[in-house]
Amino acid sequence: MTTDVTAPERGVRENLPALLSLGIAACLAVTTEMLPVGLLPAIGDAFGVADSTMGLLVTVFATMVAVFAVPLTIATTRLRRKPLILATVGAYLVSNLLIATAPTFAFVAGGRVLGGIAHALFFSVCIGYVPRLVERGQVGRGLAVVAGGSTAGFVLGVPLSTTLGAAVGWRNAFGLLAVLAVVTGVLIVRFLPAVGGAPAGRRIETPGARRGLSIVVTSNMLTFIGQYTVYTYISVVLLTAGADESWIGPLLLLCGLCGLLGLACAGRTIDPRPAATVLTVLGLLAAAIVGVGLSHQWLVVLVIVVALWNGVFGGVPSIFQSVAVRAFPDAPEIAGAWINATSNVGIAVGAVLGGAVISSSSATSYLACIGAGFVVLGLAVALIGRRAFGG
């Protein structure tokens, strides 16, 4: 029988190796999820599939997460956490190998389905792990360390794999991810402490916890819809503006580096001023997406605006993870499951909305209008339900 482990009276520094191992796993997870964003044109050309259809590779992955995150988390809530993390890493390994060797587009889609199911459980367990390692007052900082791995998936994983895909073929990019999955598994075995699952009969005792969590995850979903309406097709946007295909990887790397800066800023303010951080970041995010729509005819200006936009978004995942755990402290893994599910509902819906307009002559402007509109809705929910965000 497993037992829950109460958070030790230790901080982020004492648990840094464990947090970094989770961060590296998060890097693998996000890179696995988002790698097709940089390789949509190359994979589409290989199988004769249109850009709008290729966006379904993002949608099907996100749909698996949205459907299975909460049920899988509830079904495994009493199991030990470390073996679950290792199981998801193993599934990422198989998923990426399947795509790297796929003879047809159907096999690529199948690999994405498997990866999405793994992802449905991974982030729920990962987010719930942090409160078990560090004291409550440092959970935000701990999640920021782990989210640094997620952002690194954008900073290094996606851009470098995209560059590799352009240089030696997209299949090798997915093969590289399979190798990273093996390395990640070794690090988790070595550095991540084993913790138990939740005890039987656990109850939600914090007043207003369910209502607060529902407000947080609604805002999170709307924000992700807005972000991924545009970001899913960022390669197409840049190419349409005049960027050479060989520039896409380096440009995504620049965006990711800006995202790390945004994450660092958010990590410094999310614990002492959670509500103010959320409202400020969402306001800036909406403005940056509008800027993408206004600048798409001038490549240099567009690159600068896209870099700023991704810099702002860099802190968004850790911000919502942190406030969700605060709102639902009695079951952090369930909070993580709902953040994971609603994030991927947002990614899936955003990809579909973007795909509906990507072929139009004014695609970038339409994408930006839709994306900014959904972020503003997320901001409105956060403003109205400010108490749920610690305000």
UniProtKB/TrEMBL annotation:
Keywords: Cell membrane, Membrane, Transmembrane, Transmembrane helix. It comes from the Bacteria. The chain crosses the membrane at residues 19-43, 55-77, 84-107, 113-130, 142-161, 173-192, 213-234, 246-264, 276-294, 300-325, 337-358, 364-385. GO terms for cellular component: plasma membrane. It is found in: Cell membrane. GO terms for molecular function: transmembrane transporter activity. It is a multi-pass membrane protein. PROSITE patterns: MFS. Residues 18-391 form the Major facilitator superfamily (MFS) profile domain. PANTHER family: CHLORAMPHENICOL EFFLUX PUMP RV0191, PURINE EFFLUX PUMP PBUE. This is Purine efflux pump PbuE.
